[in-house]
Amino acid sequence: MSEGERKAGELEYVRRTKYHVEDINGVEVTSFEVPYIRYFAEDELVYLEAVLDFKSTDDLIKRIDESKLGRKTIEKVFAYRLKQGDSGPEPWPVEPALLPSLIQNNAEPNPVYEVKPDEGLNELVSSAYGLNKFMFSYSIRINDINDFLFIGVLNKGFYKEVYILRNIEPMAIVKYNIYV
Question: Where are the alpha helices (DSSP H) in 1-152?
Fold first, then answer.
């Protein structure tokens, strides 16, 4: 069944979410709300398709829908909006996490070879995992704003962890487990 034939009610784990037009230092960025856990926003599928090299959105949705059969295939572990606390970024569950739409914005991925400390969430990633542990990672430039996003994939043997970090206020972190 193609995307055009699918009805919104037929997708158990994929939801349409609210869009926001953000003004970031005079640059307009269209972002979407990311459901906290279990459910996926339609725009999140673009992120996962790109990172996991799926042939089509339908293949990705089929893998996600296998969760209703009790199979672990692709799960969202969490999506937190972060606020700056006394000891660095802290989860802030009052507001949903926002990610820029890769379809509605100009997105330019750049491979990351070295994480620069003291640059937003890059420090969090570097200290928690170390860049050398990522299979691959990208810094994404959105509408000419450098390092807007960081996307990294860790190989954990029988599954992969995918991290999406929004470095621009309001900061956010999203984690997925992909079972192979």
Answer: 44-52, 57-65, 122-128
Q: Examine residue 83 and state whether it is found in any structural domain, yes or no.
A: yes
Give the C-alpha separation, 111 to 153, whole Å: 12
Here the tokens at position 124 are 């969090």
Residues of the chain with pLDDT under 50: 1-9, 131-132
- Does 2 fall in a domain? no
User: Is the CB of residue 125 less than 8 Å from the CB of residue 90?
Assistant: no
Phi and psi torsions of 177, nearest 5°: -110, 130
Q: How many domains does the chain have?
A: 1
Question: What pLDDT is attached to residue 32?
Answer: 97
pLDDT tens profile 47-93:
988 888 777 788 888 888 877 666 778 889 999 998 877 777 777 77
Quick check: 67 and 61 in contact, CB under 8 A?
no
As a whole number of angstroms, the distance between CA 17 and CA 15 comes to: 6
Asked whether 148 and 168 are in contact (CB, 8 A), the reply is yes
The terminus-to-terminus CA distance of the chain in angstroms comes to: 24
What pTM value is reported for the model? Answer: 0.81
> Which structure tokens are listed for 16?
């349409």
For 160, the domain range is 8-179
β-strands 159-166, 107-111 pairing:
unpaired
